[in-house]
Amino acid sequence: MKKKYLLIIxxxxxxxxxxxxxxxxxxxxSRPDQIFTKHLDLDIEVDFFNKKIFGEAKYKLxxxxxxxxxxxxxxxxxxxxxxxxxTKCSYSLGKHDSIFGQSLKINLEKHYDEIxxxxxxxxxxxxxxxxxxxxxxxxxxxxxxxxxxxxxxxxWIPCQDSPGVRFTYNAKVKVPKNLLPVxxxxxxxxxxxxxxxxxxxxxxxxxYLMALSVGDLQFKKLGKHTGIYAEPSMLLKASxxxxxxxxxxxxxxxxxxxxxxxxxDLLVLPPSFPFGGMENPKLTFVTPTILSGDRSLTxxxxxxxxxxxxxxxxxxxxxxxxWLNEGFTVYLERRIIERLKGRDYSDMLTLLGKQDLEHTVSxxxxxxxxxxxxxxxxxxxxxxxxTDIAYEKGFFFLKLLEEKFGRKQFDLFLNKYFNEYKFKAIxxxxxxxxxxxxxxxxxxxxxxxIQIDKWIYGPGIPxxxxxxxxxxxxxxxxxxxxxxxxxxxxxxxxxxxxxHEWLYFLxxxxxxxxxxxxxxxxxxxxxxxxxxxxxxxxxxxIAIKTNYKKADKAMEKFLVNVGxxxxxxxxxxxxxxxxxxxxxxxxxxxxxxxxxVSKSTIDKIVF
Length: 607
Known about the structure:
Blueprint (H helix, E strand, L loop, with lengths): L1 H15 L18 E13 L4 E12 L5 E6 L3 E7 L2 E2 L2 E3 L8 E6 L6 E7 L7 E4 L11 E4 L19 E9 L5 E4 L12 E11 L5 E4 L2 E4 L4 E5 L1 H10 L3 H12 L7 E5 L8 E2 L4 E4 L12 H8 L7 E3 L6 H19 L1 H22 L23 H18 L1 H14 L3 E3 L1 H11 L8 H4 L1 H6 L13 H14 L14 H9 L7 H11 L7 H14 L5 H10 L3 H14 L1 H11 L5 H11 L1
Helix pairs in contact: 3-4, 3-5, 4-5, 5-6, 5-7, 6-7, 7-8, 12-13, 13-15, 15-17, 16-18, 17-18, 17-19
């Protein structure tokens, strides 16, 4: 009898591993605690003329309870018909919500173990950005890319759109013959003659990591497991910038365990991509704004690589637990950069991150609940949680644990954590229990010395936050002080400064800096024409405040062509403070070039 009960327990455990113990998610209509999707066969065609995707999404199902229906998430998808094992299924649509879309309830017979949904996307589907040829680098062919995080997968695929539901997938994608499609899957390296491509993802992933891009793409190998996709005119520049990708991968494996995704390739998207990068498994999407020409911004690649362990491998169960993805990823990123470029370099990133955290806390409010690591985003767009709180407060909490227990012991904990939770989802409460049982033990550091509750469930920055020092930035501050006291600009010794030192210099200029000082700085260092997007972001904000009109033309060009939300939000915010008419005029020209993720944010600022 004991063996029989043990077998039952094992079987139930194996079923639950895909949804990690009866997931319930406030941002999804689905009920994967009852029935969940375990495999997807996707057969679609990409129609550039009508700007839509259409085809079939066929799911294999796993029942955990005796139910006669399954609920999926959709957002303005046109459902043509639904079948199960060749038989037509009845279905109903829930009330549409402007944030979450609507439920798709499909009625099933008890013996049905699969469903086929035939559907079309609509014009303006939020995950999809269709680019005309003039919006690409090559100017000859159209381009498409998806952005599914956080809950936009439901706008191009009917799915259980929750980070805790993982499934494998195969895909068949038809595109124009002169274009190449790539996905978060095993990808082709070159175009074929028929325009039909097959993809496989054997590792289970959540819906927000479903990704597709189609364009005039070429591939260049970087290493045994790494390569770069880009438009032909961008390929050489991108391959130079990302030359160290294979080296980063090996360094990460040395510290955090074997890379379990086979390949780590990169896709350079057009500049309208709303984020710095998106960690789609096997194929990370990246913005061209990190192509600075000197590899100074490639810490972003380390960040997206780190997601291969934190996020893609071990995933936040809900978007309220988003810090479990990003806090860990920032920690791993800085460890990779430290191994690659040295402690002095990673310390600069940490101090810039501390400034970002302090600024975000100040903007949100030091007592606001949205400065908690564990969020409460009920009835809110989960994008509201995509702030520096998850990234930087999460990082500093983990940095505190490293300092208290020592790096060697903390690394052992991380490796064990990634191994035990691989291809699963976890929430904050499970993590705290795991942390307590596996790192904070009787006889070691007392729990009250860590102040877990203050970090995770409390607002602001706890008083035991690790201190940050940077010898390189100390020298920059000396220069800033001298500059404020009339030090001649031409005597600033900056020949060997990295982008991070320049950022720190610009961030620490006095708030009442004069027009003449700004002009002198630009005459000496030509910030207005910088090829570095991070520097331009800060410089344009300074130019707006001081009415430095020489930067106006370059700023408008930047805003019209670059869709990265990280840059758009602060620049438009400053424009609305000082030059609202100019902000509205530029946005009128630029808005059509932005992805819906960026539009939704900037609309709130400008309108």
